[in-house]
């Protein structure tokens, strides 16, 4: 297997240290990629010989984004609903039914094609690892199609049958379906189970029932909680040891304390908060209390129609009070924790000798530029498991200039 030396790295963010407080930056660095893995990291002046060399010429290199909350399997869009929201209407869970109807009408091939297009869009902005969910089928056949489509496109798949009780079915009957035959059908294709714990979707007891059924089927647990109002979602997630509780906009002190004393990651979704005009989650207080956080795009047609992790990172810095390093950590290593991929041979979100070579090159000398130059497409190349891709915007670009 050939070894590729990447040199000329002005700033290498490894995320190999155990927290975002530790210094994980190497200046004037180099690394070697071999067999999809990082084979060497160190000062450029000490780099070993390799079969080929790419000189990134004073740019910053960091792990690829780990986007752990997306809903890419859907058809149609909800631009009209978005416009109404921007004119003052409040977001409500019921909009999910609009996407459900379009998704049920689409073929599996079309669902795969559109999810793939969104994944490519994410990759062109530096994402190298991505989770996605079912949740717009909401009957057995459509959730199964969605689970298979998701498994074709994403690295991690979550079953979200408990997204909304679809029109035309009794609530109890739907819960029995989600926790019984639907779960059994999708289980071979998914890794996690999730539920939308919110007024208008499912209450705490219903979510507990869904998650426990998923656990009994061998799935990991995650939860949508405290998005539109205060409630018991976060505490349920902590009680059940969920890998992640996502949204977290409306938190009481007790929720922050519960998260801080737990291994559950609070996954924050700033693009969604802008698009729904919800208050941002108390990111600073969460971090200061000792909670773990992640940042994700929440790409979906209802509340957050963007695949851009750089946009989320910039927003977290500019509007949520995170430092650049905290935001970058939350979108890489913190996110890896939210899907149980922080440690071990399949770890993502960090650059370590022996680990996966999933990385991105910015057209900037440091990660600070992600927030300093918001909205500018800075990602000029990614390597995913050692394989290089050039984002379409920069396809003709030579990294050495
Ligand atoms: O994460 N909150 C629940 N689910 C999605 C939005 C679903 C929709 O409105 O289509 C979210 O924001």
Shape assignment: globular
Assess the beta-strand content as a share of residues. 15-25%
Give the CATH class of the largest domain.
Answer: Alpha Beta
CATH architecture classification of the largest domain:
Alpha-Beta Barrel
Helix content range: 25-40%
In the CATH hierarchy, what is the superfamily of the largest domain?
A: Metal-dependent hydrolases
**β-strand number:** 15
In DSSP terms, counting alpha (H) and pi (I) runs of 4 or more, how many helices?
A: 14
Rg calculated over all Cα atoms: 21 Å
Overall mean pLDDT stands at 95
Order of strands, main sheet, comes to 5-6-7-8-9-10-11-12
**Count of domain modules:** 2
Q: What distance lies between the first and last C-alpha atoms, to the nearest angstrom? A: 28 Å
The ligands found in this model are:
N-(iminomethyl)-L-glutamic acid
Which regions are unreliable across 5 or more consecutive residues at pLDDT < 50?
none
**Secondary-structure-derived class:** alpha/beta
SSE arrangement, N to C:
EEEEEHHHEHEHEHEHEHEHHEHHHEHEE
**Major β-sheet profile:** 8 strands, parallel
CATH topology of the largest domain: TIM Barrel
């Amino acid at each position: 297997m050939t070894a590729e030396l990447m040199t000329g790295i002005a700033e290498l963010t490894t995320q190999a240290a155990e927290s975002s407080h530790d210094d994980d930056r190497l200046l004037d660095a180099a690394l070697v990629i071999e067999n999809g893995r990082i084979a060497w990291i160190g000062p450029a002046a000490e780099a070993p010989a390799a079969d080929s060399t790419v000189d990134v010429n004073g740019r910053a290199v960091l792990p690829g984004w780990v986007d752990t909350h997306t809903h890419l399997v859907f058809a149609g869009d909800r631009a009209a609903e978005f416009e109404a929201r921007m004119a003052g209407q409040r977001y409500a869970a019921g909009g999910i039914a609009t996407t459900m109807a379009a998704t049920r009408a689409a073929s599996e091939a079309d669902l795969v094609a559109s999810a793939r297009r969104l994944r490519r869009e994410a990759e062109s902005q530096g994402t190298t690892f991505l989770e996605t969910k079912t949740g717009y089928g909401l009957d057995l056949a459509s959730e199964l199609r969605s689970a298979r489509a998701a498994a074709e496109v994403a690295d991690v798949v979550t079953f979200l049958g408990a997204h909304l009780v679809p029109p035309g079915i009794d609530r109890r009957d739907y819960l029995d379906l989600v926790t019984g035959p639907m779960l059994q059908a999708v289980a071979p294709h998914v890794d996690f189970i999730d539920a939308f714990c919110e007024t208008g979707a499912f209450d705490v007891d219903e979510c507990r029932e869904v998650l426990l059924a998923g656990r009994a089927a061998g799935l990991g647990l995650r939860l949508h909680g405290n998005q539109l109002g205060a409630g018991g979602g976060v505490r349920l997630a902590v009680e059940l040891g969920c890998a992640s509780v996502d949204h977290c906009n409306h938190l009481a002190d007790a929720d922050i304390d519960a998260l801080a004393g737990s291994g559950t990651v609070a996954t924050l979704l700033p693009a969604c908060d802008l698009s729904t005009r919800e208050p941002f989650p108390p990111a600073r207080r969460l971090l200061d209390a000792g909670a773990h956080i992640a940042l994700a795009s929440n790409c979906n047609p209802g509340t957050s129609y963007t695949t851009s992790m750089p946009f989320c990172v910039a927003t977290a810095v500019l509007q949520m009070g995170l430092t650049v390093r905290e935001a970058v950590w939350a979108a890489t290593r913190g996110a890896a924790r939210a899907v149980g991929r922080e440690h071990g041979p399949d770890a993502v979100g960090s650059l370590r000798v022996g680990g996966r070579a999933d990385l991105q090159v910015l057209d900037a000398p440091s990660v600070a530029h992600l927030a300093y130059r918001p909205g500018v497409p800075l990602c000029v190349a990614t390597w995913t498991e050692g394989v290089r891709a050039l984002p379409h915007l920069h396809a003709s670009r030579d990294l050495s200039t």
